[in-house]
Amino acid sequence: MLDQNLTNQVQPVDVLIIGAGPAGLAAAIAAHEAGTKNLIVLEREPEMGGILRQCIHNGFGLHRFKEELTGPEYAQRDISRVEELGVDVRCNTTVLSIDENRLVTAISKENGVQLFKAGAIILAMGCRERPRGALATPGTRCAGIYSAGTAQKFVNLEGYMPGKRVVILGSGDIGLIMARRMVLQGAQVLACVELMPYSGGLNRNIVQCLEDYQIPLLLSHTVIDIKGRERLTSVTVSQVDENRMPIKGTEKEFECDTLLLSVGLIPENELSEQANVQMSNLTQGAIVDDSFQTSQEGIFACGNVLHVHDLVDFVSAESFKAGKAAAAFAKGEMRDGTMIKLVDGFGVRGVVPQKLLKLQGEAEPVQVMFRPQAVFENATVYVMDGEREVLKKRKRILTPGEMVELTLTPQHIGRLSGADLTVRVERQGE
C-alpha cells in the first residue's frame, strides 16, 4: 500500500520512457516529433547513451547514417537531438516498479521517491550479459573472470587492463571485439572458444577481430575446468560432440590470467514482468504487435529489451516506430483492424513482431526480424499465408549470429487472409 502523501504526488506524463540508451533516445525523439511535449525519460546511469558509450570501435551507423561511426559518435547524434528538442531526461534515476495501470515508481538521490501516471510507457531497458553462474562451469572461484562487456568498460572507460594472457569463452560480438581490443592494448589472446559449431557473432567481426590478428576460433569447444587460487592460472578446453558433451582425450590446457565470457545477452525484463506483460520464451522479451505494443495496452517495448539485436541501426529504426506509436496512443488514437499472428516455421527462431494488425485503412510497411536456428547455405526465406506465398527472399548464407530482416509492404498486408503467417527457411533443392 502506497503512503497517502506519495499517492497525492503522482505526476501525470503523456509518454514515459525507461532507459536512455539508443532505443530510449530514438523513441523519445520520435514521440516528441509526433507532438508529445509532456515526455519524460528515466535513466539509471549518470549519462545518456547506454552501452554505446563504451563501444569506441567503429562500424555503427552504416544503415542509418550511411557512414561509419564509433559508438560514442552514434550516441551523441541522438543525445544532441534530444537536447535540441528539450526532452526531459532524468539520469541517476532508477525505476522500482510498473503496474498494469501504467503507474511507475522511481527513485533518485536528487528527488527521492517519485510516482508517475503515464498515458503510455516505452520499455527500453536494454539487456545484460549472462554471468558465469549461469554456465555451471566447474573450477575455482578465482579472480580474473569477467564478462566481455565488463572488460570493455574497464579498458575503454576506466583505463584498466583486466590481464595479459586471455582466453575468451563464447563468440558473441562483444567477445570478438574485445579479442581485438585486448591485442591492441598489448595482451595475448590465446583462443576464442565456442560451444556451437558456428560463431554467434557477425561475420565481419570474425574476420576483422580474430582472423586479422591470427586468433584461433575453436568451434564445438568449451571450457571444462578453471584453475587458480587467488588469481586464474589456467583453463582446460575440450572439444564437444553433437550433444555438446566433452569428448575425452581432446582436453587442452591454456595458461592464462584472464577469462572473458561472451556467452549471450539477456533482455532486462524484470519491470516488464511486474506489469504482467506477456513474454516470449524464444526472444526472452515481450510479445508485441507491429506497433511494438505489448499485451498490456499502452505499454510498448523496443530495442534489446525486446530482442537482442546485432546492429544498433535496427534498434533505432524499431524504436522510432515505438515512439511514434506510443505518442499516438497517449493522444487517444486507436488502431482498428484484424490481428494476425506471425509464427516460427522451420529454421526460424524468435520472429518479431509476433502479431500484425491488418488495418481497416492504409497500412504502413512492417519489418519482420528473426534469427536462423542454424547455418543455412543457398536458402530461401518464405512468409506463408496458409498455403499461399506472401514473400520470399533468397539468401546465400544464414547464420544465427546475423538477424534476418524482411519487409511486408502495404500491398502484402492488404492481401492477407487473416490466417496465421508462418515464416520458414527452405534449403535449395527441398
Can you walk through the features of this model?
There is one protein chain. The protein is an alpha/beta fold. It has three domains: 9-129 and 264-335, 3-Layer(bba) Sandwich (FAD/NAD(P)-binding domain), CATH 3.50.50.60; 131-263, FAD/NAD(P)-binding domain, CATH 3.50.50.60; 336-430, Sandwich (Immunoglobulin-like), CATH 2.60.40. The protein has nine helices and 27 strands. The chain has helices at 4-7, 22-33, 71-85, 148-158, 173-184, 203-210, 270-274, 312-330, 410-414, and strands spanning 11-18, 39-42, 58-60, 69-70, 88-90, 93-98, 103-108, 112-123, 127-129, 145-147, 165-169, 188-193, 217-218, 221-227, 234-239, 252-255, 258-261, 265-267, 299-301, 337-344, 348-352, 355-359, 366-372, 376-385, 388-398, 404-408, 421-427. Strands 1, 2, 5, 6, 7, 8 and 19 form a seven-stranded mixed beta sheet that branches. The protein is globular and about 65 Å long. 42% of the residues are buried.
Q: How many domains in all? A: 3
Which architecture of the largest domain does the CATH hierarchy give at level 2? 3-Layer(bba) Sandwich
Q: Which class do the helix and strand fractions yield?
A: alpha/beta
Counted beta strands? 27
Q: In percent, how much strand structure appears in the residues?
A: 25-35%
Q: Averaging pLDDT over every residue, what do you get?
A: 94
Number of helices: 9
| Cα end-to-end separation | 60 Å
Oligomer: single chain
What is the CATH class name of the largest domain? Alpha Beta
Write down the Rg: 23 Å
Q: What's the shape?
A: globular
Low-confidence stretches: none
Helix content: 10-25%
Biggest beta sheet summary: 7 strands, mixed
